[in-house]
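Q: Could you fold this chain for me?
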Amino acid sequence: ASLFGAHTLLAYPIASRLGIARNEAVAVSVGSTIINTTLALLVLAIIADSARGADIGVWFWLRIGPGMAGLASLIWWGLPWLARWFFSNVPEKGGSQFLFVMALLGASAYLSYYARMEPIIGAFLAGAALNRLIPAQSALMNRLEFVGSTIFIPFFLISVGMLVDPGAIAGDSRGWLVAGAMVFIVIAGKWLATAIAGAWFGYNREEKRVMFGLSVVKAASTLAAVLIGYELEILDASVLNGAIAMIFITCPLGAWMVDRYGRRLAARSREHIIK
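A: Sure. Below is the predicted structure, expressed as structure tokens.
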């Protein structure tokens, strides 16, 4: 459920480039990403504690509940306050603001341990809290994107790729079945979710397809969840390979859907403005 629920806004830059980022359907997709990724990672944290031998009972919730609330409150309100003070007093010279953001990211991930959650949850909340304070076209954002895309993501992919066993699929019919089922479920589930939401809010066909393209992509959170599950021996090699198959298929699919229907949506918006 954690693997299927969380998604990554990998195709959002395409929507931004096409000028539809302010469209309501796109905004709803961004908001839903924050909500469902947070919930999916919380589910992952609870399952990880259970796999480590924790008793999931009343006392567990009494311990983990305040920890979750405290961590979320500290990061969501404390980090922006601290970041505003730092950004207003320390200029971006010599990478000082970049180092400050990286320090906050590491500290948030470390604090997750005290809330009995996985470090990725703290890192995700820190990114969501700081995102609104860093301009998209600033030097700081360029440095963060460069380091993320050229260092962190490649090394993360390498570490996951070293765990993948192609023979689990090539020589085992169960591997093909698991991978096919995972790909089908995630595509069908996201299609159904966007169809229901689009019909409920009265979105047109292009908006529904753009929502699907934004929400179907599996990447960062999916890799983190499957890696944690594999290390805890909750998931086997076939599920790991199935998650990789989901990423390989949904990334180009989501980008293609947003580009194709985003262009039509942008054209329709221009026609509406002219009229």
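A (continued): The two ends are 45 Å apart (CA to CA).
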